[in-house]
Amino acid sequence: MTEKPAQTSVGSTPPELFTWEFATNPYPAYAWLREHAPVHRTKLPSGVEAWLVTRYADAKQALADARLSKNPAHHDEPAHAKGKTGIPGERKAELMTHLLNIDPPDHTRLRRLVAQAFTPRRVAAFAPRVQELADHLIDQFAHKGSADLIHEFAFPLPIYAICDLLGVPREDQDDFRDWAGMMIRHGGGPRGGVARSVKKMRGYLAELIHRKRAALPEEPTPGEDLISGLIRASDDRASDRLSENEAAAMAFILLFAGFETTVNLVGNGTYALLTHPEQRQRLQQSLAVGDTDLLATGVEELLRYDGPVELATWRFATEAVTIGGQRIEVGDPVLVVLAAADRDPGRFNAPDTLDLGRRDNQHLGYGHGIHYCLGAPLARLEGRTALATLLTRLPDLQLAVDSTDLRWRGGLIMRGLRTLPVSFTPTQSW
Ligand code: HEM
């Protein structure tokens, strides 16, 4: 509990958003907005104007409001800007059918299908594989005494985990790693190398689904992969049948939604622990005696304190809506700022303090309402395994650079570090 509360008294003019300083530490600006302009209209770097919702109660209401659609077709943008706004889904129609771009009833149907295949049981059975992956990755650098935890650990862990869960054969997983690397390095925009990587990934997934459908045994086998489960769930209900395009879009969104988020949970979470030695020591002591309660509450607190998803994905008003006393017109885009809501003193006691044992921690890091993160059980499993394994195997892990030398990505939706250089006493592989 070493951090001072964020400064809120930065004057009466709105802080500048989307600058380098803001990317490094957006929390003082969010504190100002929460206090002075809780539903704030701003121009985004793409030129699109959108409402930022920063208070917890307003954010929760907005996330559950059916009048705020996820379908970019409801965006009232000027004709000359069509397809140039950077809003995912506006240009690539074939990517539109995934969960984060659709509303009920289509959303209800697709979500039910994937929930049937993506069960807590399937995730729980996956725990030994996640542990094996975490150990294997640490084995690659444990002898060196230093590493970049983003590239050598946080980045490969979720991509291999999701590939395994989906049923992407091991020999193809490095291709996925390269495509995902291109997407994370150059942002989600539909340009150049990113567009090519997205296209390759989708083409590959479509073909994989086609092959798996042709070879699917009549009865499910134990440990069946998720794509097969998805095909089975859709084939079981003739009326609910997933089209191949929907199935490819579903596999794609699982990869996309579950990848950079988890990289950032491990990256931001490790960084927060390394810069809060008291909290880190507390966690290491409890892990040393086999107590995992603090690990469980701690991962939730790391999500609240500096979570991977800074702003929830786009929403568009389908009718005039009032949020926090502010009228929002039809067609206006709304961005719910999860990072600001989760530091709201109106909801959380001492919100700028990291307290791994925090109780009553109903943070919005996984969203809220019908789009609540479908992968939360997997994210929790990966986050807990990654942090516990790092702290246990490299007990004197420390930052190898000054915090001020770290660079944050500065994307619109996600918050995460570009690199996380660390040092530790070299150890042998396990
Ligand atoms: C949705 C956060 C990991 C799959 C969401 C949303 C948030 C979120 C905030 C809601 C977005 C909105 O309402 O606009 C996170 C965080 C993660 C994480 C913080 C890691 C720490 C994962 C993983 C997967 C996944 C590992 C799957 C492999 C999804 C899917 C949705 C979603 C499919 C869309 C659900 C729907 O629209 O019904 N996530 N996520 N997420 N997440 Fe996650």
From TrEMBL:
GO terms for molecular function: heme binding; iron ion binding; monooxygenase activity; oxidoreductase activity, acting on paired donors, with incorporation or reduction of molecular oxygen. The keyword Transit peptide does not apply. Signal peptide: none annotated. It comes from the Bacteria. Gene3D superfamilies: Cytochrome P450. Keywords: Heme, Iron, Metal-binding, Monooxygenase, Oxidoreductase. InterPro entries: Cyt_P450, Cyt_P450_B, Cyt_P450_sf. Belongs to the cytochrome P450 family. This is Cytochrome P450. It comes from Streptomyces sporangiiformans.
